[in-house]
Amino acid sequence: MNIKYAERIDRLPKYIFAAIEELKEQKRKEGVDLIPLGIGDPDLPTPGLIVEEMIKQVKDPKNQNYPTSMGEEDYREAVARWNKVRYGLDFNPATEISHVIGGKEGVANIARAFINPGDLVLCPNPGYPVYENGATKFCDGYPYLMPLTKENEFLPDLDALDSATLKKAKMMYLNYPNNPTGAIASKEYLKKVADLAEDNNFFIVFDNPYSEFTFDDYIAPTLLQISQNHVEINSSSKMFNMTGFRCGWAVGNAEIIAGLRKVKSQIDSGGSIFVQKAVIKGLNEYKSEKKPEIVAKSMKIYEERRNVLIKGLNDMGWHTETPKATFYVWTAIPKSEKTSMDFVKKLINIGVIITPGTGFGEYGEGFVRFALTQPVDKIKEALERIKTII
Length: 390
Hints:
CATH superfamily of the largest domain: Type I PLP-dependent aspartate aminotransferase-like (Major domain)
Helix content: 40-55%
Strand order of the largest sheet: 2-8-7-6-5-3-4
Number of helices: 14
Low-confidence stretches: none
Strand content: 5-15%
Mean pLDDT: 96
């Protein structure tokens, strides 16, 4: 029997992380103590009050049945309250909010609702690979790459987008605070991009899972504070250290939300009710735009790690700027190195795992990403190892 992949599968790029996993496994077998600073998965535990609420809720038989794919009514109401408290925005839980099984699912399924074969989607590069691959290419759309460069503060250069491209665009993905660069976007920039989208009749999917992952008293805005003609995706994954629980939300334009709900109604049955109940508990901790203690406590830990890593890199002559958001440090590779992947391989040889910039797209070449997902003592040990090859 001759079994062939669909053409959309063949269009996917080679998975660079597979090569990294092979090298990691080889070093592990050799007995090398690996310090993983590559994956963006919080190592801190889910706040106790959320875990306790989940234990309570899972014991209730009513919470063990099928959920709704759009999210339970009280969950959508809690997301609406959070948006009111956090951003000062009013959304209708009945029509303008949907549960998603983690932000990744929402990012992909919005494309399924709106992108036809050949449609043009504006995708940041370097960027979260799902925008280009799991969303656009899986819908047989055309990903138009918007380079994020240091010279432009890792923001898409809107002036570089020609009118013909803008007229063809159906959708744009935008992500600030940004993965992988840690960059932030001002309200002034968000106003410019929203105006551009509306002038050219495309909508923006504002992927915002790092909205609460900010440092130095910085409070991140949302595109929806500028215009509610678009949609934001957020989740409990980074906010409450709940990556494994897969619980998020999409909020914004009712027509976009309706399209997402239509897709979800055909392919999933929603997220566990008891998880939604626990996330409600966390969201209700917000009393203003400032982080509640259950979030601020985690951010203080990540801020200390960020400071230790930045100081250590700069002390060895590796100039690295301090990000105001996310738990990533994005930095240019040393000038003596040829490619980001070559440099990552050198670090794997000494047991330090980071991510090559090319893992996030061609415009990530020349950079690497550190994830602040290890304790301070491990970060210091990684720095000592790096010194031996810098």
